[in-house]
Amino acid sequence: MKLPPFEIEHFFRQHEFSAPHGISSSDCEPLTLPEILDYASPSRRAQFENLWLGYTESQGHPELRRAIADLHDEGIEADHVLEVVPEEGIFVPMNALLNEGDHVIAIFPSFQSLYEIGVGIGCEVSFWRAGCGERGWSFDIDALERLVRADTKMLIINFPHNPTGALLERAEFERLVDLARRHDLILYSDEIYRFAEQDPAKRLPSACELYDRAIVLGGLSKCFGLPGLRVGWLITRDAGLMHEMQEMKSYTTICGSAPSEILALIALENAEALTERCVTIVRENSHVARSFFDRHDDLFRIHYPGAGTVGLVELTADMDVSEFADGALREAGVMVLPARIMKFEGNYFRIGLGRRALPQALEPFEQYVVDTLY
């Protein structure tokens, strides 16, 4: 399998750690090691400090898998959980379950590997594309249904959605799951931003709670503020799908990091506090961003995310967004992710609302906007 360059990772590899400022990060403000250890019970702290650094269980630490299962409704058990590195949670099921010639439907725009791995395998990939109207970004279930064919094998979705921040209504989501069930599709559901809803009442059920042939991707990288742990998970109630993914994992990481597993347990034992921390940061940054974009509403159009940490901003000025982003980096030291890096058409860039430094980053960015666009 030959894959093309991973554009977004190449972009962040070049600029994430060298640019003085950034306004396009997708995660929530990462915690420090002392901060996450402050959440630990005395027994967990002792467990971490006296940890044996040997190989770990390939499916994941039993307590960790139980804690992940407990994030979900009754019916999801520890045996339904496979611990993975988050990106591995995309690579493994796609390679374990898809074959050349399979038909796959993938949400778009999205994280590149969600569809690119299928293309590299030789699948025929159809895109379920986002639309934008007066009420913001949305996905049309009728349009999705028209994409399903007799030979469709997998449907790949992502809600809350990166990069638009879109979230289906409960009835729409249930209709989508029913569509997958009627056509016996594998439903791959990227739920990495689940638990970062501004209104918890709008949180969708996990796909694995509704459908036994769903595979759910979750992890600690986004709304838990712990991307450096590299802890994610796959959940499915289908024993056959789990077996295939476990076998494929034997060719990738084999097992997880022992220190990361204990720190992940600490995080999940304090899940409500950590996710509320994320939502608070996003809410505060949304107020700051709203003030900025209101001052420049002749140049930008934005629909704020109802869930997750990211949204899309349209540059309505007569300037190409890639040129605009290059200038922001060069002239103001501000990293801005243009839509072309996400292989998405339109004069858009991604705004990240999860980092505490966003208000400070918007200061040089605003000066660049004034100097360049007025």
What does this structure look like?
The chain has 374 residues and is an alpha/beta fold. It folds into two domains: 7-32 and 272-373, Alpha-Beta Complex (Aspartate Aminotransferase, domain 1); 43-270, 3-Layer(aba) Sandwich (Aspartate Aminotransferase, domain 2), CATH 3.40.640. Helix content is 40%, strand content 17%. It is globular and about 60 Å long.
Question: Key terms for this structure?
Answer:
about 375 residues, alpha/beta, Aspartate Aminotransferase, domain 1, Aspartate Aminotransferase, domain 2, 2 domains, seven-stranded mixed β-sheet, four-stranded antiparallel β-sheet, 14 helices, 15 strands, about 40% helix, globular
Structural class: alpha/beta
- Per CATH, what is the topology of the largest domain? Aspartate Aminotransferase, domain 2
CATH arch. level architecture of the largest domain = 3-Layer(aba) Sandwich
CATH homologous group name of the largest domain:
Type I PLP-dependent aspartate aminotransferase-like (Major domain)
Largest sheet: 7 strands, mixed
Q: What would the principal axes of the Cα set say about the shape? A: globular
Q: What is the C-alpha radius of gyration, as a whole number of Å?
A: 21 Å
- Classified by CATH, the class of the largest domain is Alpha Beta
- Report strand order across the widest sheet: 2-10-9-8-7-3-4
Order of helices and strands: HEHHHEHEHEEEHEHEHEEHHHEEHEEEH
Strand content: 15-25%
Count of individual domains: 2
- Counted by DSSP, the helix tally is 14
TL;DR of this structure?
With 374 residues, the chain is α/β, with parallel strands linked by helices. The chain is built from 14 helices and 15 strands. The longest helix is centred in the C-terminal third of the chain and has 25 residues, at 271-295.
